[in-house]
Amino acid sequence: MAYTWREQGSGVGGQKDMTQTAIEQRFEAYGLWRRDLAQTLSDLRTWLTENSLSQPQSDAHLERMQTALRDDRLYLAFVAEFSRGKSELINAIFFAGQGRRILPSSAGRTTMCPTELFYEADKPACIKLLPIETRRNGATVAEFKGFGDEWQTIALDVDDPEAMAAALAHIAEVKQVPAEEARALGLTVTDDIAKTGAAVDADGEVEIPRWRYALINFPHPLLADGLVILDTPGLNALGAEPELTLNTLPNAHAILFVLAADTGVTQSEISVWRDHVAGSHKGRLVVLNKVDGLWDDLKKTGELEREIARQVNETARYLDVATERVYPVSAQKALAAKVRGDRDLEERSGIGALERALAEELLPGKGGLVAQTVGRDFDEVEASVERVIGQRLQGLREHWGELSGLNGKNMDVIEHMMTKVRADKTDFDRSMQRFHATRTIFAQQSAALYAKISLRQLDTLIAETKKNMQTCLTTAGLKTAMQTFFGYARSRMDEAAADSQQIKTLMDGVYRKFQEEHGLANIKPAAFSVMRYTREIKRLQEKHEQFMRGLSLIMTEQKAVVRGFFESAVSKVRAIYVSANRDADDWLRDMMAPMESQVREHQAQLRRRLESIKRIHQASDTLEARMAELKQVLEEISDQHRAAHAAFRQIRAQLSAAP
Ligand SMILES: Nc1nc2c(ncn2[C@@H]2O[C@H](COP(=O)(O)OP(=O)(O)OP(=O)(O)O)[C@@H](O)[C@H]2O)c(=O)[nH]1
Ligand SMILES: [Mg+2]
Question: Cβ atoms within 10 A of the Cβ of 658, count?
């Protein structure tokens, strides 16, 4: 079912097969690259297992690479004041092939809740809606994503446009509730019509969105390749769902900030741009929509172009961006043109330039980034395979040397050699005992590290902080509670960094000793970096302080809003701790696993050598037979070595061919 939409709806959108948009072309190439690479990795994994070269560590890295490639997502968010045409623009850029509007778009407020469009092929097409009441208990949308039963699910019949439009119309639903209830949900309620927020009517009721969030699983090639589109409701919902400003937007790979030619740039748009969208990030584009409004008024040649250029310049000046980053378009005409197959109108709508810019912004950086992450894992795989093969070859060659030396020698020499190998083995066994002692220390130090980033302790602190915030009476009190929380989160991370340094020093010593005494490879394990976590926590804290400064509500409302905001930051910090724990698992494994596999390999070799000499000594094997056998094994492993190199070269080439 996934891709059938391209063929269906003959006529409408049919021409898209020949004229893919710039985004579609780029994305297709990107998806193909990821799938090909994942396949090569899967082949390598099978081959390593078949050739007894697979190590638990390298296998874990390979698996992680495959997951990273498969689950790679690209977030594209649309942000604007209400009614600027976000939903229409999404329809025009991505869903014109459907031959009709997919997302509801109409005058006035339409999209009432943030809406995420994506596609997971293993799940049926559907729309899932999270009721607004879920805001009451303080859990975030991200947390609710883990609880299926809170969401209302409506199946989508992608072959029936009418039914689909009806299902998607839910995004626009509202309901009337008493002002009190809206406040309890942490929504801004106001009597002042000039302010943003839900306005109280004569009966003391306010209109609020019926849903808090919508997830749409929709079969579409771009979405299937990992694109996630986020449509947002008009601006003030940004304040209402703190997660959006705090997590979703900063993490989006690209944001389209939409303004409309008929409304110009308003004060609130400038501040949202500054506070939530601008910044040093790449991938921020400004769209000046609805330029078709000017088409009829300005017919004289040159006049229209001048007026559009004037508005583009003005917009760029207000937002403090380069004029090239402002794209004048008509979403409405673009959609109509694509549906009808009217190339002239499509050209005139300006959508092509925007689509090309989007493709340029979105993808190039992304492919490189994924290749980099995956490449780092691959370094480990390569090193690990190289080590195992190297060690096997070295052992075999040494043994070959030993046996060649025995040619024509008498029993005494053979006996002497056996004594020597036995002594080697005893030596190594002694080192092993020391190694086991080190492992105990390693385990203790690891436990200390885990204690620093303990989720249970963090949860206790979270519960305490929440309690403090509920009972404290002043804004200053709230601020202190937050500072304490962020302070804790950051200092524990720093302590974890110190612990990890100790572990590294310990293991560096172990690796060095084994190298000196037994000739094992000297591995230099990487350091455990907590910098990205502390930086992220710091960013949250700053965002937070900025938010506090911007507040101008009465105390009772403020408390609800601040609590909502804080709880969202708290869950983000918790998520950072979860990934820190996961990264610590990986790091500790990478620290210990290569040592363990080397030691195991070395022990096996010593045993084989001893066995082999013993047999010759007992005359149960001839020297020639033994050497012939050894030679064959040597050749097999050399073949493996060459094959591994060929596979590595191929993967390296694929990595550097990232689109
Ligand atoms: N003339 C003209 N009208 C447009 C254009 N794009 C959108 N509109 C109209 O503007 C209105 C609002 O469009 P939407 O797509 O609902 O805007 P939105 O930004 O999603 O608004 P919310 O969902 O309320 O936040 C609708 O009536 C659209 O038909 C355009 O390019 N030209
Ligand atoms: Mg909308």
Answer: 20
| Residues 544, 497: Cα–Cα separation, whole Å | 25
- Of 28 and 6, which is predicted with more confidence? 28
Sequential DSSP letters for 403-427? HHHHTT--HHHHHHHHHHHHHHHHH
Integer Cα distance of 208 and 205 in angstroms: 10
For residue 226, how many other CB atoms are within 10 A of its CB? 21
Spatial strand order in the sheet of 211-217: 152-155, 126-131, 211-217, 115-118, 227-231, 74-80, 254-260, 284-289, 326-328
380 vs 387: CA distance, rounded Å: 10
Ligand 1 proximity of 345 Cβ (cutoff 6 Å): no
Q: How far is CA 489 from CA 454, 457, 563, in A?
A: 11, 11, 18
Q: How far apart are CA 298 and CA 304, in angstroms?
A: 5
- Enter the tokens of residue 317: 């000046």
Q: Is 20 helix (H, G, I), strand (E, B) or coil?
A: coil
The two tokens of residue 304 are 């229209």
Pocket test for ligand 1, best of 229, 263, 332, 333 (most atoms within 8 A of CB): 332
At residue 280, the pLDDT reads 54
Indicate the SS3 state at residue 176.
strand
Write out pLDDT tens, residues 324-350.
Answer: 999 999 999 999 999 999 999 999 999
Confidence of residue 557 (pLDDT cuts 50, 70, 90): low
As a whole number of angstroms, the distance between CA 309 and CA 319 comes to 15
CA distance 245 to 108: 23
Say what angle helices 331-340 and 351-406 make with each other, to 10 degrees. Answer: 80
Q: Crossing angle, helix 455-471 and helix 475-518, to 10 degrees?
A: 170
Of all protein residues, whose CA lies closest to atom 16 belonging to ligand 1? 105
Tell which phi-psi region holds residue 279, choosing left (phi > 0), alpha (psi between -120 and 50) or beta.
left
At residue 191, the pLDDT reads 65
For residue 286, which of 211, 370, 350 has the smallest C-alpha distance? Answer: 350
- CB-ligand 1 contact for 293 (6 Å cutoff): yes
Residue 578 Cα to ligand 2 midpoint, Å, equals 34
| Confidence (pLDDT) at 299 | 67
Q: Which ligand is nearest to the CA of 81?
A: 1
Q: What values do phi and psi take at 192, rounded to 5?
A: -90, 110
pTM over 0.70: yes
pLDDT score of 554: 54
* Strand 198-199 with 189-190, pairing: parallel
Q: Which of 251, 273, 327, 349 is nearest to 79 (CA)?
A: 273
- Amino acid, res. 240: A
In this predicted model, what pLDDT tens digit does every residue of 575-601 receive, in sequence order?
899 999 999 998 998 888 888 888 888
- Residue of minimum CA distance from atom 21 in ligand 1: 83
Question: How far is the centre of ligand 2, averaged over its atoms, from the C-alpha of 115 (Å)?
Answer: 9
> Which alpha helices (H) appear in 285-408, and where do they start and end?
292-295, 303-319, 331-340, 343-349, 351-406
Distances (CA, A) of 637 to 44, 58, 130, 634: 16, 18, 58, 5
